[in-house]
Amino acid sequence: MKTILVTGGAGFIGSNFVHYLLENYDDLTIVNLDLLTYAGNLDNLADIAEDKRYTFVRGDIHDRALVEELFDKWDFDTVVNFAAESHVDRSITDPDLFLTTNVLGTQTLLDVAKNHWKLDPKDRYSREFKEGVKYLQVSTDEVYGALGPTGMFTETTPLAPNSPYSASKASADFVVRAYDKTYGMPVNITRCSNNYGPYQFPEKLIPLMINNCLAEKSLPVYGDGMQIRDWLYVEDHCAAICAVLEKGALGEVYNIGGNNERANIEIVKLILENTGKSEDLIVHVKDRPGHDRRYAIDNTKITGTLGWSPKYTFQTGMAQTIEWYLHHREWMDKIVSGEYLKYYENMYANR
Ligand code: NAD
Ligand code: DAU
Predict the structure, then answer these.
(1) How distant, in Å, are the alpha carbons of 26, 105, 226, 256 from that of 240?
(2) Residues 81-106: pLDDT tens digits?
(3) Less CB within 10 Å around the terminal CB: N or C of the chain?
(4) Is 239 within the bounds of a domain?
(5) What is 100-133 written as a DSSP string?
């Protein structure tokens, strides 16, 4: 990878990924295409905004003319697609937007990349692509649906998404697969478990609970709080994506996770303990409709074939994360004083 299009690079994982690339690779040009929806935040990239290896472009992955213009100008050899509507609760109230961005936006990126990378774009049956090009789709473990008390998701687990968000991500995965099978396009799909770390928008469990603890607000735990997620520190996810970009076999799917299952209530209590607040702040609220009970990733394919493994334990990752939010109160305050406030009031009213 030399000239890389990162989409959604102003969001949580995308901005961590841009930082990770700049810290770990010298000879690289990065273009970050991001629409700056409510979840995109240029404050996440303020420290690297002047880096000569990096350019920001505001725009929509579904804007074909813009994506073509960027390909013509930069001649990318790599695309990593993070851009998405990513929050399950929002997908329940606004599914249309999720399908437009997550499915049609992905198809636009794939199609422009295909036309740019095919050796003979006019021959519709040719399957020859330039050397060294790759499209990587950042997907999610949620496409596999929910697990019972035992078992894990492997790459061959049938897709069974339960929310409009996960349905849109699964649909996008099928489109990526079709571009491989039909056109011979060099692609990978990664399916990671829940990430945590710096720059996560405070609609998601961990930053929301930290923020509410600091503000002494109640902590809204959905249902009994015994739903299980498999948590991975975001930097480990970024390293895994680089391993797949560099060594992933073309056409393959890689699950990414760190064998770190925790019940939501356990996480909430850990945050309370670390911020010195009382468990009296916990309030059990009405559950999310269609709420997946448990996720767990079998990571043996990526650890065994690509040599990736997580560097952070849950203890080290969570300590670093809580510390980061405690030392970046301005970052959080700027977000929660604006549009987010209306969203929060709307989402948690009458629950
Ligand atoms: P996020 O919501 O924090 O960021 C999404 C980014 O995409 C934002 O910067 C937003 O402005 C941008 N965006 C949205 N629509 C766009 C469009 N039409 N064109 C261009 N940019 C657009 O999301 P995240 O948590 O960083 O997740 C990034 C990706 O990783 C998503 O595809 C998500 O499905 C996937 N993923 C997330 C997790 C997780 O735990 N957060 C786990 C596995 C996979
Ligand atoms: O598994 C990967 C997925 O993880 C990603 O694909 C999604 O983009 C990402 O948002 C995340 O989805 P979740 O729904 O698991 O994350 P969220 O932080 O919204 O919720 C985590 C768990 O905590 C879930 O069981 C719901 C619960 N929860 C969440 C919120 C926001 C609460 O109990 N209370 C809350 O206020």
Answers:
(1) 18, 24, 28, 7
(2) 999 999 999 999 999 999 999 999 99
(3) C
(4) yes
(5) IIIIIIHHHHHHHHHHHHBSSTT-TT---B-TT-
Q: Is 141 a catalytic residue?
A: yes
What pLDDT, on the 0 to 100 scale, is given for residue 340?
61
- Per-residue model confidence as pLDDT tens digits over 207-229: 999 999 999 999 999 999 999 99
Domain for residue 73, yes or no?
yes
Cα 53 to averaged position of ligand 1 atoms, centre (Å): 22
| Ligand 1 atom 1 nearest Cα | 11
Parent domain of 125: 2-196+233-259+293-313
Ligand 2 atom closest to the CA of 222, numbered from 1: 33
167-223 per-position pLDDT tens digit: 999 999 999 999 999 999 999 999 999 999 999 999 999 999 999 999 999 999 999
- The answer as to whether 171 is a domain residue is yes
Q: Choose the weakest-confidence range: 11-20, 51-60, 111-120, 121-130.
A: 121-130
Is 156 part of any domain?
A: yes
What is the identity of the amino acid at 27? D
Domain count, the chain: 1
Catalytic one of 142, 180, 261, 292? 142
Do 207 and 325 form a contact (C-beta atoms < 8 A)? yes
Active site residue 165: yes
CATH of the domain at 115: 3.40.50.720
Indicate the top mutation candidate among 88, 140, 232 to test ligand 2's pocket, ranked by most ligand atoms within 8 A of CB.
Answer: 88
What is the radius of gyration, based on Cα positions, of the chain?
20
